[in-house]
Amino acid sequence: MKISDFKAQPNSKIDLSKISTSYSGKIKSKDEAKKLLKKNVKEMINLQDKLYAEDKYSLLLIFQAMDAAGKDGTIKHVMSGLNPQGTQVTSFKQPSAEELNHHYLWRVNKALPERGRIGIFNRSYYEEVLVVRVHNLLSTEKIPSKLIDENIWQTRFKEINDFEKNLYQNGTVILKFFLHLSKDEQKRRFIERIDTPSKNWKFSEADLKEREFWNDYQKCFAEAISATSKKHAPWFIIPADVKWFARLAVSSIIIDTMQKLDLQYPKLNKQQLDNLKLYKEKLEKE
Ligand code: ATP
Ligand code: MG
User: Fold this and answer.
1) 87 secondary structure, DSSP code
2) Which residue lies with its CA nearest to atom 19 of ligand 1?
3) Is 27 in the pocket of ligand 1 (CB under 6 A)?
4) Annotated domain spans of the chain
5) Residues of the chain whose pLDDT is less than 70?
6) In what order do the strands lie in the sheet containing 172-180?
7) Ligand 1 proximity of 95 Cβ (cutoff 6 Å)
8) Which atom of ligand 1 is nearest to the CA of 122?
9) Ligand 1, atom 30, residue with closest C-alpha
10) Candidates 3.40.50.300, 3.40.50.12780, 3.50.50.60, 3.30.70.100; correct CATH number of 3-284?
11) C-alpha 259 to ligand 1 mean position (Å)
12) Quick one: pLDDT at residue 139?
């Protein structure tokens, strides 16, 4: 699997209808993918340990998608086995009254990962250029109408780019994943949720309503990804009709990125190492 195949190239126009939702590479079976994912999970545990010990970088993983694309499952499988002390998942829902009284990045800032940690955003501030755009919710957000013009979305893209650049320059490594699902596969998954009692709770009428806006969402996603995929904060368009492939692709991208950080356990100086010897002698003499 070549990771660069999934990267949305900066400054290039994206047509999602031309990008496969069902690609699964050279991997032939779910079993094979599961084995590879297991190996990746092990490697990620090692890398997380170093990230935490080094305490310099933080990793921010953003997941955006249509309903039923598998955000929850991907997060669950890819992050399994990680040290819970070093990870934090935040789900961004409709903003509360308090949140609407603040800048849209207010709730985001509070949820950013500390150094040494992995922060996972299940939805994110990208909703500000997706659902808010599709349903025209700017007035709900109490933005003064005088400040809203036809360039508002370009303005928001720039705000987001500036925000991410700032994070990057201070040690936050950002990866953004769009789980690219087909409309047919969404329908299949919705029906499965209705047919399976243990999955009934996952289905809501709102999901059907949003499905009616499928094309608008695809358009907004494509524009947002084109405008905000940057070298320091790339978007990856992950084919998501085949769940096991999506999970494997996401974990491979995370590992590749973390490996390139050249994470190191903190090194002790001579004095500190000598001290350790003394402490050991002391303990052994007890
Ligand atoms: P699930 O898999 O449980 O359905 P979900 O992420 O779809 O997870 P929901 O509670 O169903 O969670 O939906 C959250 C809703 O909140 C989504 O429809 C999303 O578009 C909406 N939302 C998120 N951020 C904003 C925002 N800033 N403004 C308006 N709506 C938002
Ligand atoms: Mg939902």
Assistant:
1) E
2) 93
3) no
4) 3-284
5) none
6) 87-91, 118-122, 58-65, 172-180, 235-239
7) yes
8) 6
9) 94
10) 3.40.50.300
11) 32
12) 87
